[in-house]
Design brief:
The protein is α+β, with helices and mostly antiparallel strands. The chain folds into 2 domains: 12-88 and 308-327, D-Maltodextrin-Binding Protein, domain 2 (3-Layer(aba) Sandwich), CATH 3.40.190.10; 91-305, Dipeptide-binding Protein, Domain 3 (Dipeptide-binding Protein, domain 3, Roll), CATH 3.10.105.10. It is built from 10 helices and 14 strands. The longest helix has 18 residues, at 279-296. It is globular and about 70 Å long.
Amino acid sequence: TPSSTAVGTGPFVFKEWRSGDRIVLEKNLNYWKKGLPKSNQLVMRFITDPAARLAQLRAGTIDLTVDLTPDQLAEIKRDSNLDALYRPSFNVGYLALNPGYPPLSKPEVRQALTIAINKQEIVKAFWGDLGESTSHFIPPLFKEYRSPKVTDYPYNPQVAKQTLAQAGYPNGFPLDLWYMPVSRPYFPNPKLIAEAFAAELSAIGIKVNLKTKDWAAYLADRKKPPGYQSFMLGWVGDYGDPDNFYYPHFGPGATSDLGKWKNEQIIKLLDQGRSTGDQAERIKIYQQVDEILYEEAVRIPIVHAQPLLAKRKKVTGWIPSPFGSQPLDEVAKS
């Protein structure tokens, strides 16, 4: 909290916290890495809107910023005082379909909704060259753990509509689709992306009702029975192992936001992946998980995004990390 103190061995020490505005850090004179940090002070501003962050960067009131939207890239490139940077793609943005909602209890219905969404075109429209659309839940850095048997869901609204009819829903059904109230690297424009999903699904008779709420409530309420019928969410990896993507979403106790759905075979495989150190065996295990999830279609991978960052040209030493944390001890202003 703003009134508490922080204890650590990092390159900076806590100086000030203005709630909702900024955190001020100063150089740790006793830092264990000789010659670092290169900056005497670090001011971290809270600016929630990507457009406002870029405006302040262009004005020179901030020196670097993260998690801009892909459509801001052109504006960055037009400004001779700025450099665009790219965080390695280490995330997933997904659409969850809750089997606890009766129409979504059948895998074939969930698969029908999946092939009714033109993911490739949506990713192209909202991410441009900064997004990859696949049916793999794990990002491209884990390509060896992706099953070669899993291809992207083919966009085919006609087949989707036929599948719904065969499953007992020839006229479709109503569906609440919850979208995030905040921008994140994997979903930079959640409302607009949700509207694109709704437009695609309406073509096969799904009557989508878009909903959202405060971010903290959004996260908490999705786990309260019966949960959201469908919702958008994502994940940024904490460390370089596929377990960090799979276990928090499909492991024991990780599917409370999917009604009573769980897959014992997946849980068994994930536990095996944690217990073996044999790399070849782990690849085989996680490729099996990939194949099962493709068929189950409960968390539909929409995109693996390459987050856009930017800095002023006078800033040096900033190398974006693929993880959520960002080391700044090498950063300096010329």
